[in-house]
Design brief:
300 residues, mainly alpha, two-stranded antiparallel sheet, 12 helices, 2 strands, 1% strand, globular
């Protein structure tokens, strides 16, 4: 049970990184990104290939994954910078499917649907499973703290105020002389880097990645996590991620206690319970548990 709880905390930390990355591009800048799992998968594959085939260390693979996914974020942002609303959501969702399909078909690089196994982790094999889980929990917790502090600094900086101005009305920001498109591209790159870092950490933790792991449902869960926690609030993103993981795992025990359910039926009931829990929470707290609070400017 202890190993299970530690593993769930690790996954909660990974979801927190994903929610923080989404908050930069959606909560602060107002750009809808449903291609989260695409950047997540890209970061996982980049770090896995560099450490497994090129012999790089994990310490080098993690920043490399963040840089590559940041570059991919720039490319996606350049294509979608003029899109809004549903159109932006559709294009970013299509990007995630392109990454998944590419990983499934480029067997020479990604081993196709068989996936990549044996991804190295820190002292895996030298430590006991319990010790490895605790060590990795510390690594993920450190990553969450560093990203959270960086996102908070970004949010309260003049740069963050420009992002919020673009979110509220990008035409007004453009009239004020701000290069709106450049800010959107930069926000997308920062967000993608955090998502890629989360993917790399996931690959090194599980030691196995495959295309079917990176389903669009992950993006939906991350969007729900940020919505429940509070869009625009970095602390709310972390809280929402923890709650979503709690809902997903607690419903596993509830459905197991229900008699006469087949595996498919139990999975359907589990998804229904997760959705109902989140709907009830949003019904009573539509702005999230920790809604964004913008400090007023001090009077001169």
């Amino acid at each position: 049970m202890e190993n299970y709880l530690v593993a769930m905390l690790v996954f909660a930390g990974l979801y927190a990184l994903l929610a923080l990355g989404l908050n930069v591009v959606w909560g602060m800048t107002g750009m809808i990104n449903l291609g989260l799992v695409g950047f997540f998968a890209l970061g996982a594959y980049v770090s896995a290939l560099l450490t497994k085939k090129a012999g790089w260390s994990m310490a080098a693979g993690l920043p490399a994954a963040a840089l590559v996914t940041a570059g991919a974020g720039v490319l996606v942002a350049l294509v979608t910078a003029r899109f809004r609303g549903d159109y932006l959501a559709i294009v970013t969702l299509g990007f995630s499917e392109v990454v998944r399909i590419t990983a499934s078909n480029e067997i020479w690089l990604t081993n196709g649907t068989d996936g990549i196994s044996g991804i190295p982790g820190p002292w895996r094999g030298q430590l006991s499973p319990a010790a490895f889980n605790l060590l990795y929990l510390g690594i993920v917790a450190l990553a969450v703290v560093v990203v959270l502090v960086a996102c908070e600094r970004l949010r309260h900086s003049p740069y963050g105020r420009v992002l919020r101005a673009i979110r509220d009305d990008d035409q007004v920001a453009a009239v004020a002389g701000k290069p709106v498109r450049a800010f959107k591209v930069e926000a997308f790159a920062v967000s993608a880097a955090v998502l890629g870092l989360a993917g790399a950490l996931y690959g090194h933790y599980t030691s196995y990645i495959a295309p079917e792991v990176f389903t669009p449902l992950i993006s939906i869960y991350v969007v729900l996590a940020l919505t429940v926690g509070g869009t625009g609030n970095n602390y709310g993103a972390v809280l929402g991620a923890a709650l979503v993981v709690f809902f997903m795992e607690s419903t596993r025990f509830i459905t197991a206690a229900l008699p006469g359910l087949a595996a498919v039926q139990a999975a359907a009931v589990r998804e229904a319970l997760i959705g109902a829990s989140l709907i009830l929470m949003l019904r009573f707290r539509p702005a999230g548990l920790l809604p964004e609070r913008v400090r007023p400017m001090a009077r001169q």
